Amino acid sequence: MARLTINGRTRDIEVDPETPLLWVLREQAGLTGTKFGCGVAQCGACTVLIDGVATRSCTMPASAIAQDQQIVTIEGLSEDGSHPVQQAWLALDVPQCGYCQAGMIMAAAALLNSTPTPSDDDISAEITNICRCGTYNRVRAAIKLAAETMSTSQKG
């Protein structure tokens, strides 16, 4: 049994302690926005936030999550898609196939939480998710747009 706080809700989930968090989220919690990609924490499709830090969930055992840690999935980033990163993604038509985008959005949200006005080097260092469609230029532009939006909303 694991007690996990996912998207602000504490859940008791019966699971083998070594089950990767990704499968707990998808199969036990029913949150299928987090995707399986490579299974070795390289591609980033499975990225979620744990206490605000972008974390690859496909290799993170459920037992490694402390009861007081906060897990946020794409479903919990905002209830209605109004998070500035999600809005920037829509405004700039970032996705093509979209498979990797939930992980990309989560990684971008974590970056902007820690670095509100990231440079190109910051983005390159932190956004290591893989996109087979190659939308990297649009991802970078959307991160910058979201940063501007967040900066403007904090001033006003």
TrEMBL record:
Organism: Sinorhizobium kummerowiae
Location of the 2Fe-2S ferredoxin-type domain: 1-77
InterPro entries named among the record's database cross-references: 2Fe-2S-bd, 2Fe-2S-bd_dom_sf, 2Fe-2S_ferredoxin-like_sf, 2Fe-2S_ferredoxin-type, 2Fe2S_fd_BS, Beta-grasp_dom_sf, Diverse_Oxidoreductases
Keyword Glycosyltransferase: no
Pfam family, one: Fer2
Keyword GTP-binding found: no
Keywords from the named record: 2Fe-2S, Iron, Iron-sulfur, Metal-binding, Oxidoreductase, Plasmid
Name assigned to this protein: (2Fe-2S)-binding protein
